[in-house]
Amino acid sequence: MKLTNTDPGLLAALDTLLSEQPSGIGEMELMNALDKRYPELFPRPDLSDRLLLFQHHFLLRHHLYVLQQQLSEAGTGWLELELVTITKRPLNSSTLQQVGRFDGVRDYYLDLNNLAAETQQSVDEMISGFWKAMAAYQQAPEARQVLGLTGQESREEIRGIVRRLSQQHHPDKGGDPEKFRAIQQAWDQLKNQPDS
């Protein structure tokens, strides 16, 4: 892929800011830090204009994925771009597994045609989807606790555990209705998560 439509100054600023945050930084925190320290490179958008905010977010993610690729190719590091946190990591055996792996989200942000294709309606739909994903992400630890999971289980293992717990606590079999309901809610929260 050709690295075009990127600002080398912004890439350098991102690298600097991320290097200063070894435990990671949230996207809004990163936007605020860019606005404060490098206002000429990435001025803060009007937060009330959702389309403009999305375009700002898209360009930031585009640059982060370009930086991720540059760090990887240079052998100097890797960026973990998660839902809520962006973290610069050293390149090691763990991060090397990420390099070259198919990532549809990365491909989306690296293609600037996607930026031009989005409309106010599509952005509103994405924002709604984001908040649903965020709620599920935040509820996942509690859901895993209800099911007695470690977080290392495969989706099939989780299904088996849910099935076993549901049978054990089903009200028709003398089980606790509240516990049964909690198991079902936990499964509802986890079943659509990519890492579950």
Automatic annotation (TrEMBL):
Keywords: Chaperone. The keyword Oxidoreductase does not apply. It holds the Pfam family DnaJ. Residues 142-195 form the J domain. SUPFAM superfamilies: Chaperone J-domain. The keyword Endoplasmic reticulum does not apply. Transmembrane segments: none annotated. This is J domain-containing protein. It comes from Reinekea blandensis MED297.
